[in-house]
Specification:
The complex is a heterodimer of chains A (110) and B (119).
Chain A lengths: L3 E4 L2 E4 L5 E7 L5 E8 L3 E8 L6 E2 L6 E3 L9 E3 L8 E8 L4 E3 L3 E5 L1
Parallel strand pairs in A: 2-11
Antiparallel strand pairs in A: 1-3, 3-8, 4-5, 4-9, 5-6, 7-8, 9-10, 9-11
Chain B lengths: L2 E3 L4 E5 L4 E3 L2 E3 L6 E7 L6 E7 L7 E2 L2 E6 L4 E6 L8 E11 L6 E5 L3 E6 L1
Parallel strand pairs in B: 2-12
Antiparallel strand pairs in B: 1-4, 3-9, 5-6, 5-10, 7-8, 8-9, 10-11, 10-12
Classes of the chains: A mainly beta (110), B mainly beta (119).
Chain lengths: 110, 119
């Protein structure tokens, strides 16, 4: 059982480019989340999804979009990347009680 | 708004000793949950332990226990018999009111405590 996988592991991106971070879970959890982690700020929620077909905004949604076409996949898209989006991005899923995290994607926007 | 405070940016502990990592929280919701996660230098977030607000006993998971003092709104993590592999960042987090729909909820994180275990 893989749990949650994220791709890519790391990426360097030019400002203004479009980028999609992928997240797949095999635990059949309904709820999924995207967080960013920045030094000194902890983890902050970007977007979440209660179940396939629904999404919602978290604490820091600006500049990001998500979709949830099925239970397993929850991609995060940066339409036009900016340097302030340099961060480590974590995808998570939950069984209603505990959130389980993927390994993270380290994104650098230059 | 819900809030988690971890007042210890960094802690040192001697190998095989016990250590307590502090966490206080603030919420007006009577139903909530408290979590601790470990983040080693490799970067992944590892779930350690959970305490529900209505749980009568403190949660334990192996060498981890949660010292839950509801009146003080504190949920300290106790690691017994520290090991070198315990060196990591530790995050306290709180779940309270759920988002609408099935199973999702807001998880608010503290800023973390960096634990270093000394041989």
């Amino acid at each position: 059982i893989a749990g949650i996988t994220q791709a890519p592991t790391s990426q360097i991106l030019a400002a203004g480019r479009r980028m999609t971070l992928r997240c797949t879970q095999d635990m059949r959890h309904n709820a999924m989340y995207w967080y960013r982690q920045d030094l000194g700020l902890g983890l902050r929620l970007i977007h979440y999804s209660n179940t396939a077909g629904t999404t919602g905004k978290g604490e820091v949604p600006d500049g990001y979009s998500v979709s949830r076409a099925n239970t397993d996949d929850f991609p995060l898209t940066l339409a036009s990347a900016v340097p302030s989006q340099t961060s480590v991005y974590f995808c998570a899923s939950s069984d209603g009680y505990t959130q389980y995290f993927g390994p993270g994607t380290r994104l650098t926007v230059l | 708004a819900q809030k988690i405070t971890q007042t210890q940016p960094g802690m040192f502990v001697q190998e095989k000793e016990a250590v307590t990592l502090d966490c206080t929280y603030d919420t007006s919701d009577p139903s909530y949950g408290l979590f601790w996660y470990k983040q080693p230098s490799s970067g992944e977030m590892i779930f350690l332990i959970y305490q529900g607000s209505y749980d009568q006993q403190n949660a334990t998971e192996g060498r981890y226990s949660l010292n839950f003092q509801k009146a003080r709104k504190s949920a300290n993590l106790v690691i017994s018999a520290s090991q070198l592999g315990d060196s990591a960042m530790y995050f306290c987090a709180m779940r309270d009111r759920p988002y609408s729909g099935a199973g999702s909820y807001q998880l608010t994180f503290g800023k973390g405590t960096k634990l270093s275990v000394i041989p």
